Amino acid sequence: MGPSSRIGRRPRLGLLLRAGAPLIAAGSAAALLSGGGSSSRASIASAPSYSALESTAASGLPVAEPTDRHRPGDPVGPSFPAQPPDGATGWPVAGSIRRLSLSEPGLSAWIARGADGGVCVLLYDGRPVDGVSAIDMACSPPEGLSRGASVEVAEIPGMTGKTVAAGVVPDGVTSVREVMADGSTATSAVHGNAWARIADEPAAAGEQPTESREG
Predict the structure, then answer these.
(1) What does R_g of the chain's alpha carbons equal in angstroms?
(2) Can you tell me the distance from the alpha carbon of 193 to that of 49, in angstroms, rounded to the nearest whole number?
(3) pLDDT tens for residues 80-135?
(4) CA of 24: how far to CAs of 14, 86, 98, 128, in Å?
(5) Strands 98-100, 173-179: parallel, antiparallel or unpaired by DSSP?
(6) Domain boundaries defined on the chain
(7) CB neighbours of 17 closer than 8 A, spacing ≥ 6?
């Protein structure tokens, strides 16, 4: 799955939201590689869990009604639309959004349940543009729940030459490894279902994180 360009940014997959505005999405939530057992019974038995979704802490991401423009007095930080846009699929369930703890300073991220049964990651790079704080997000389809979700962003104002990525993976995953565009590999530690990286190179085209588990 290749990158697409939106408002000068290139998410690897997913949708681009802007706080205080209706959906600005020039693409679809791309499907992650699907897992699954040899039977429906095996799939149920091995259904992955995400402890971060059970957090009782405040998400820190306001849910707001969409407007067509940013107005004086509106919050400059990120927010999430109270209602999904028409035709949206794999959209995060607003009431399930929970804050994640990332190892990379300056980034904020959240996990959420997908409306269709998948899992979602939302990423804010901490760089408002013209008073608007963009959220990049990705949701897995239900059959991709075992692989989690990830999003990558480039061409961020004030971070010339850098790419930012974040993702969520099931309980038990301790790190993820990616092949980068220059052929090198990047390994990111997982804490509380979340991982993040800031790098000079994007991931290789079509690359999906490879998980390492406990034991």
Answers:
(1) 16
(2) 9
(3) 888 887 877 779 999 999 999 998 888 999 999 999 999 999 999 888 777 778 88
(4) 12, 12, 23, 16
(5) unpaired
(6) 15-35+76-213
(7) 23, 24, 25, 80, 81, 134, 135, 136, 137
